[in-house]
Amino acid sequence: VQAATPALAAEAYTAPETAGKTVEELIDEFRAEHALTEDNFELSYYNTVTGESYDFNETKMLYGASTYKLPLNLYYYEMENAGEIASDALMTQGGATLDLCHYLSIVESNNEISHALLYRIGTFVDYKEAMRKYFTMTDDEIDPKYYQDNYYCTRMMMDTLKVVWDGQKNYTELIDDLKIACPDAYFKTYIDVDETPIAHKYGSYNGAENDVGIIWAAQPFLLAVYTSGLSYGAGGNVDNAYADGQSAGSVICGQLAVLFKTYVEEQARLAQEQA
After folding, report:
1. Residue 240 vs residues 9, 189, 244, 258: alpha-carbon distances, Å
2. Side-chain half-sphere CA neighbours of 39 within 13 A
3. 30-54: pLDDT as tens digits
4. What is the mean pLDDT of residues 74-82?
5. What percent helix, strand, coil does the chain show, rounded to 5?
6. Which residue in 270, 263, 265, 269 sits closest to 18, CA to CA?
């Protein structure tokens, strides 16, 4: 289930000064400012150039909402690349081809189509087992609730993003769809995607506001953010100035995208000076 695409936030966002600060310091400050805790927030980051990574609360199972459609569609793209299924194979009783299902699932975040892809794999548990091919987590690391509902964590999503990044020449259609999906919200809220392309899959359901994707900054990076039950105003997580129809979780995702973009571009500048 998904919400309608939110409107642009009322205010622009400028990241705090990142020079001389580590990722851990920046996120600690960001979390303190927005009252983000182990109960309502998790994050995974990976710089594809330097290999730098950072995680917070990354194995906690939170409601994934529509982010589950990223590994689900990746699963079928791998089948296509292996010659196990054709892009024009009929996937629904209504006659939707796999190619059309990809578009509807990723770009329009269509739930009925995505469920058809999911249950074509088998039972819900079969589907959950099938998705594990992309995850590095062991049985002991995975909370059993993973198998009970649409629960995921940012480490799982980061693992999936790395598969897409490392094999991107094989997933050009998937990446193109992710680039046009959900403009002006979540990671794309404050960033000009004509200058800095973003391929992302967001998710929104009953307080869960998430985004996972690739951001082509000066040093391209992968980012996965899950939030739960965030709110505006006094005692909340986001200032009311950023409201205007957009969820608090979407604003947090957007601000973090700007924060990491600013940070990696500072790192790229320093690397160029040293070179």
Report:
1. 10, 16, 8, 19
2. 4
3. 999 999 999 999 999 999 999 999 9
4. 97
5. 45, 15, 40
6. 263
